[in-house]
Amino acid sequence: MPIYEFYCPDCHVIFNFLSRAVNTSGRPDCPKCGGRNLRREVSAFATTGKAKEGGEDADLPIDDARMERAVEALAADAEKAGEDDPRQAAELMRKFSSMTGVRFGKGMEEAMSRMASGEDPDRIEEEMGDLLSEDEEPFILPESGAGRGGRASAGGRPPRRDKTLYEM
Questions:
Q1: CA 3, chain centre distance (Å)
Q2: Are 162 and 13 in contact (CB under 8 A)?
Q3: Which residues is 139 bridged to in the sheet?
Q4: 116 vs 76: CA distance, rounded Å
Q5: pLDDT one-digit tens code per residue, 45-104
Q6: pTM
């Protein structure tokens, strides 16, 4: 049973919805304000299936087919990369960004630059850990403004996450 994330721009909140079956087109109403303009979010740890006919899911700012091609193309490079070489890891991430249009936030960009110069990733995480996990979105989706999906409020704050699991 999949769990889908939806963002309500009126409430500036991300909600989780449980679906009894795969449902790529359903769109629930906002559980808080009842609004009907929720936008499907990209889960950082989930993968999408085959792209819809036409090559793009209109609800997402990412072309599924393009993302799939990038992951396949980089898989061979990732297998060859040395586990202990931060330069190669940074290069792979930059290639991924170039192929998909996903950009890095300011903190992530700094960490990438430090890795590209050969600095130890553990040291980078130790020094920047709080900066990388606070308010800034580490990844910026294509055709978006500030943060993931361009959702930053007027105050620049990321959306709140409602921890309740709602039925879709």
A1: 16
A2: yes
A3: 104
A4: 20
A5: 444 444 444 444 444 456 666 777 777 777 777 777 766 788 888 888 888 887 777 788
A6: 0.46
Residue with tokens 């799939």: 68
Q: Give the DSSP per-residue string, the chain.
A: --EEEEEETTTTEEEEEE-SS--SS--PPPTTT--S--EE---TT----SPPTTS--TTSSS-HHHHHHHHHHHHHHHHHS-TT-HHHHHHHHHHHHHHH--EE-HHHHHHHHHHHTT--HHHHHHHHHHHHHSSS-SEE-TT-SSSGGG---TT-PPPEEEEEEEE-
Domain spans of the chain?
A: 1-54+150-168, 63-140
Residues whose CB is less than 8 angstroms from the CB of residue 95 and which lie 6 or more positions away in sequence, other chains included: 74, 77
- Name the phi and psi angles at 20, rounded to 5: -75, -15
Q: Residue 30 and residue 46: Cα distance in Å, rounded?
A: 22
